[in-house]
Specification:
Blueprint: E1 2-7, H1 11-22, E2 27-33, H2 36-45, E3 50-53, H3 62-72, E4 77-82, H4 86-95, E5 100-103, H5 108-119, H6 127-136, H7 152-162, H8 167-174, H9 178-192, H10 197-206
Parallel strand pairs: 1-2, 1-3, 3-4, 4-5
Helix pairs in contact: 4-6, 7-9, 7-10, 8-9
Domain HTH luxR-type: 143-208
Protein name: Response regulator transcription factor RqpR
Keywords: DNA-binding, Phosphoprotein, Transcription, Transcription regulation
């Protein structure tokens, strides 16, 4: 039996994932977490084979969690399940230590297959991600899009601002000070050579980082 923990800040999403995995006789969801703190408590109490992890969470993002688990040498296999498109986050997640990446809008059967695959210690990647990985091989820095050079937290800040969130809201959601968020915003504007939030939003839409 493969033991699974689901970490997502939306209770309805967690319920949907739990219900989907419940139909598979070889998979068992042993716990749910809404943020990093709850996840840490669960991992201290129970061992699991697969962690189904969202990227966009309050406090530490899914990418942050991946880095922490990797630094700790954790043996938990992580499957990232996110609403973000593969071309913006899949490569980052895999580089950070994820064993697979699945879009939330995909077929539920794909989620079950992905959990089984990573539980066996193999990588789960879609044909789209395989193509991205192939294109990424040998790519030099000169051909990277400007936002690909942003740190994980800077990219997260960019997406949240472009989604219409105020700096104060972002600070609350990420459990950071408004000053720290302002620093991230300033770095994003500088690295992308943009002047204000409006230009930042246009950039994010044009590059598929957020929906129109």
């Amino acid at each position: 039996m493969t033991r699974v923990i689901v970490c997502d800040d939306h209770a309805l999403i967690r319920r949907g994932i739990r219900d989907t995995l419940a139909d598979a006789p070889d998979l068992e969801v042993i716990g749910e977490a809404g943020d990093y703190g709850e996840l840490r408590a669960l991992l201290r109490k129970d061992t699991c084979d697969v962690l189904v992890l969202d990227i966009n969470m309050p406090g530490r993002s899914g990418l942050d969690v991946l880095h922490v688990l990797k630094d700790e040498g954790s043996q938990v296999k992580v499957l990232v399940v996110s609403m973000y498109p593969e071309d913006q986050y899949a490569i980052r997640a895999l580089k950070a230590g994820a064993h697979g990446y699945v879009n939330k809008g995909g077929d539920p059967a794909v989620l079950v297959q992905a959990v089984r695959t990573v539980a066996q210690g193999r990588k789960y990647i879609t044909p789209e991600i395989a193509q991205l990985l192939a294109e990424n091989i040998g790519k030099d820095d000169q051909h990277e899009s400007p936002h690909e050079k942003l740190s994980d937290r800077e990219l997260q800040t960019l997406v949240m601002i472009a989604s219409g969130k105020r700096l104060s809201d972002i600070a609350t959601e990420l459990t950071l000070s408004p000053k720290t968020v302002s620093v991230y915003r300033a770095r994003v504007l500088e690295k992308l050579a943009l002047g204000n939030n409006s230009e930042l939003t246009v950039y994010a839409i044009r590059n598929g980082l957020v929906g129109e």
